[in-house]
Specification:
With 449 residues, the protein is of the alpha/beta class. It has helices at residues 13-20, 35-45, 51-65, 67-78, 89-98, 101-123, 156-169, 188-197, 207-216, 233-242, 267-278, 293-306, 313-320, 331-341, 374-378, 415-431, 435-448, and strands at 9-10, 129-131, 134-140, 143-147, 173-178, 201-204, 226-228, 247-248, 256-261, 285-290, 324-327, 345-349, 365-368, 405-411. A six-stranded parallel beta sheet has the order 1-11-10-9-12-13, with helices on both faces. It has a five-stranded parallel beta sheet with strand order 6-5-4-7-8, with helices on both faces. Helix 3 packs across helix 10 and helix 6 runs parallel beside helix 7 (156-169). The chain is globular. The N and C termini lie far apart (91 Å).
Amino acid sequence: MSNKSYIKTFASVESAKKNLLQRQRISLVDYKLPKEQQKKNKDIFKKNLTPFQLVSKIIGDVVKDGDNAVKKYCSILDGAELESLLVSETEIEAAFKDVSKSEIDAIQYMSERIRNYHEIQLRNADREFFQNGFGIKVVPIERVGVYMTGSITALPSSIIHTATPAKVAGVGSIYGITPTDPSGKVNPYKLIAARFAGIEKIYKGSGAQAIAAFAFGTESIPQVDKIAGPGNIFVAMAKQQVNGSVGIDALYGPTETLVIADEFTDPQICAADILHAAEHDALAIPVLITTSKETAKAVSSIITKRIDSFARHEIIAQSLQNGGIVIAQDINEAVSLSNLFGPEHLCISTKNASDIIPMIKNAGGIFVGEGTPEVIGDYTGGISHVMPTGGAARFSSPLSIYDFQKIISIANIKELDLAKLGPYASQIAKMEGLDAHANSIDVRLERMQ
């Protein structure tokens, strides 16, 4: 066991601001690959292409060559040789045979929990109205494509947490696209999750070529109206570049968890939350803000003692360096820093944790009290774990049914309304130099006389 501290401690909120609030956001324009990957790409494409340029090339090739381009890039970049891009019913049936009943039951239970929560959300989301000649109607998006992230690593939870809100929102057709292993096989957990989530057809494809296929369509893969789901840097770049031709849910970065604690916090539970947050990948950002120096010291010590017991301890050690432990003077100062940070996940592990909820302005999700682990939200709680990162919680929300619905404005006025509204509208049109606009109103007003 090492005596070193794996996570740095900031003695004040002001010192933490200079570091934590400057967390590096991955640039989707000038991102640089590791040198070995740069060399590999140069060998493949015979020129130096930035990741942004590579993604642009892939998108253009998919638009031009359709299925052949998807297959080509899956072969070149993943070593996956794909005969058909459509996952067959036989492959889905085999997945259910290959996985144990207890694992299938767990995925199904998660699916039911996520669906039930979003059905409650739908019942409380009646936003349609029509009043005084104007109103809105709410309609679901017709076609959604879900990127089913991960090739060797399976993340069935992300599939269910992305597709289920779309299904409940009433989306007409939901399609999935997933990376495969080199043999062209899809992880069975993903196929089972897709079936429970209501994805009607699943296609094989990865990275930028998968996003391009959904954005523009190919011979096999349908064009969709919106693409949802997290992925790697190439997926994020591709979503950014096709945005406008197709809708996207968001651009997701490294995961973040911020814990607010006080002197009443159990250091074992607090350390467990920091360790789990650091386990995702080397870019994850785990942060503890506490009003207690004793809690800070105890949590740091427990992390040092426990870290080597986890299989992904090297990744945990790396990501702990992205965050830190912050000593705040009081809860108000702790909450203020949290609101500035705008974390994806906010865990309130204090006495009377519920009292702090009204003070929170920016967070993807709030997990209240030590009895509510953030991991429950990752899997079986009900809320979607697809949440804003990188401070985007200041202006955006977790994935929900609202992401898969759109509002259409309605105007249906009577003559009396036009007689009242028309003259003012005509005057403003003339002020703006748009005589034809004014005329469109004036001819109606004249016929009413």
